[in-house]
Specification:
Number of strands: 5
Structural class: alpha/beta
Largest sheet: 5 strands, parallel
Helix content: 25-40%
Mean pLDDT: 75
Radius of gyration: 15 Å
Low-confidence stretches: 115-125, 136-153
CATH topology: Rossmann fold
Number of domains: 1
Strand content: 5-15%
């Protein structure tokens, strides 16, 4: 699928937790199903500890002093993502930690969290579908699954 025809032709920057969370439920490719290209930083790629998928693009922040300034308030990986988001126009900055999101919001960045994605084998499909739809800013899906489904949260 070409980027031009992709359902969400958006510029997205993510932190490590998004990669780790989706890998744990065997749904790492859901990011690419929703977004054409996911940008991240070398610090986040190193924290992730695995090779990034081909659609994951690593970009270093041009101004290291931004990362240093943000690192006073958040961890290194998140500081690098926020620094990169302050340098390039992004549609979404995916951060999971509340402190990271608060800092990015104070900087007027378009933040999305992945905390509503529930790791549960019984509702795995419903959970990552809800996560993907939440990231893409669609309406909450109406899924009729077990008691821990997204519609019952």
């Amino acid at each position: 699928m070409s980027i031009e025809n992709h359902p969400e032709n958006k510029v997205v920057i993510t932190d490590t937790s998004c990669f780790i969370l989706l890998e744990k439920i065997g749904a790492l490719d859901v990011l690419h199903q929703v977004f054409a290209i996911i940008f991240t930083t070398p610090e986040i790629a190193a924290e992730y500890g695995h090779p990034l998928p081909g659609w994951g693009v690593t970009i270093k922040s041009a101004d290291p002093s931004l990362k240093t300034a943000f690192n006073k308030y958040v961890d290194e990986g998140e500081a690098s993502a926020i620094a990169l988001a302050s340098e390039i126009a992004c549609d979404y900055l995916i951060l999971n930690d509340a402190a990271d999101r608060r800092l990015a919001i104070k900087l007027n960045m378009p933040v999305k969290g992945n905390s509503r994605c529930i790791i549960n084998r019984q509702t795995k499909k419903a959970s990552f579908l809800y996560f993907a739809l939440t990231l893409a800013s669609y309406n909450k899906p109406t899924l009729d699954c077990r008691k821990n489904s997204p519609t019952n949260l």
